[in-house]
Amino acid sequence: MTWIKFLHIATLVCWCGALLYLPALLLANARSRSASSFEVPATVILRFLFTHIATPFALLAIISGTLLFIVGQIAGGWLVLKLAAVSGMVLCHVLCGALIVRLEQKRLRGLAPASALIAIVSAALMLAVLVLVLSTPFEA
Question: Where are the transmembrane segments (predicted)?
Fold first, then answer.
């Protein structure tokens, strides 16, 4: 059970970091009208980060979290609230993917406010998950 907790926490930290970084990169690219100084276009970097880093960590965090409450037989009202917050994080993740597609298609209208809103909502949901988990009694 300890290794599942470690895997869950590690992948959750990586997913949350990516979930905050993606909207920041989207916001920077939506505001920047000049060409990037990178060799690779920003949209390629964003898509790589989304598909090869953020999404696998999200899937591993969700799978390990599911294993935690199945193996540990964890249940409670707080778990329903936590799962609702995680579902919101998944929605923010999907919306980041949709915004990346819009950036690739050069449809920049509304991209900056949407990116900022996703970052704010993601951070609030992460805080909610943290509060819910830390306010529960510790189990052996």
Answer: 6-28, 49-72, 78-101, 113-134
- What is the per-residue pLDDT across 58-84, written as a single tens digit (0 to 9) for each? 999 999 999 988 887 777 778 888 899
* CA dist list (Å): 100 to 6, 48, 52, 54: 31, 11, 14, 13
Q: Kindly list the distances between the CA atom of residue 74 and the CA atoms of 1, 55, 65, 70, in Å, as whole numbers in the listed order.
A: 12, 25, 11, 7
Alpha helical stretches, state H, 49-107: 55-71, 77-104
Stated pTM of the model: 0.85
Q: Which residues have C-beta within 8 Å of that of residue 125, sequence separation ≥ 6?
A: 85, 86, 88, 89, 92
Distance CA 11, CA 17 (A): 10
Express each pLDDT in 24-38 by its tens digit: 999 888 776 555 555
User: And the tokens for 131?
Assistant: 């509060």
